[in-house]
Amino acid sequence: MTQFNFNSIGTIHSCYKEKFGIPRQPGLVASPATIEITETYSNDEAFRDLETFSHIWVIFVFHGVENKNWKATVRPPRLGGNQRTGVFASRSMFRPNPVGLSVVELKNVERKGNKIILNITGGDFLNLTPVLDIKPYIPYADSIPAAKGGYADEKPESKLTVVFSAEAEKEIEDVKNKYPQLKNIIIEILQLDPRPAYQKEKQIKKNFAIKLYEFDLKWLVENENVVVTSLGLMDS
Questions:
Q1: Those residues with Cβ within 8 angstroms of residue 23's Cβ, 6 or more apart along the chain or in another chain
Q2: Residue 90 and residue 75: Cα distance in Å, rounded?
C-alpha cells in the first residue's frame, strides 16, 4: 500500500470550538475565519494573484475526530441519521483518510509579521484545523449547473425561528464591538438545527449548548422555535 507524508501549510482559526454546531457544509453560515500560513510557506510569491479569485478550495485534516476504524457505510444527517449510505457517497469525517475539502469566500490576503493571513468567510472548520493545501476556485470548471446532488440535491431549509432572551440580547450588545457579526452567526447556525436527527424526531424540549468564540452559548427548542437564553463565558 502506497503511503504519503504531508506537512501542514497553515492553521485555521474559526469561531467553532467543538464539532457540535459546525455547519454541515460550507457556505451555509457567513462566519469569518482566518488561515494562518506557517512561516515556512509564508512566501509572498507563493500567494501572488490569489486575491484575483473570489473563492478558494481549502484541503484540510479532520483533526477533532476520534481515532477509530473507518466503516464502509455511514449515516448522513440529510438522511435522518438512521439510513445508511456508502462512506464515499458522503462527506462524513470518518473516512479511510481524514481529509476534508471546502470552498470558502476569500476576503483578502495580508501579511502580519512573518506570516501570511488569509481572511475567509463561510467555512465549516473546527478551530485549529490543519490546512494541507489551498487552490483557487475556478467557476467554469468547478461549477456544473446540471450536476446531480443525490440525496443532498437541495440546500437545507432554515426551519427554525431563533429568538433571544433579554439576558442574551444584553450580552450580545455588550460584546458588539468585538464581535459585530455574532448575532447573525448565531441565528444562521441555529436556524439550520444542529441537533442530531434522533432528537428532532422525539420533539423533546431540551437545553443545548454550543461553544462559539469564547462563549458557551445556551439555547433550547420549543416546537419550531429556538430560544437563546445566554451567551455564558467559557472557563479559561
A1: 29, 31, 124, 189, 192
A2: 9
Taking Cα atoms as reference points, which of 65, 20, 43 lies closest to residue 134? 43
CA distance 160 to 109: 36
Q: What strands lie across the sheet with 161-164, from one edge to the other? A: 161-164, 225-230, 215-222, 207-212
- Number of Cβ within 10 Å of residue 100's Cβ equals 20
Cα–Cα nearest to 216, from 12, 14, 13, 18: 18
Instruction: Write out the H or E segment, with its range, that includes residue 188.
Output: helix 182-191
| pLDDT tens profile 161-210 | 999 999 999 999 999 999 999 999 999 999 998 887 665 555 566 889 99
Q: Which long-range contacts (CB under 8 A, 24 or more apart) does 210-213 make?
A: 210/18, 210/20, 210/21, 211/16, 211/17, 211/18, 211/20, 211/21, 212/15, 212/16, 212/17, 212/21, 212/185, 212/186, 213/15, 213/17, 213/179, 213/182
The closest of 202, 225, 227, 205 to 217, measured between CA atoms, is: 227
Structure confidence by residue, pLDDT tens digits, 5-14: 999 999 999 9
> What's the grid cell of residue 81?
441519521
**Residue reference for cell 475565519:** 33
Q: Which domains does the chain have, with CATH numbers?
A: 10-142 (2.40.30.70), 161-230 (no CATH)
Question: Which grid coordinates belong to 84?
Answer: 445508511
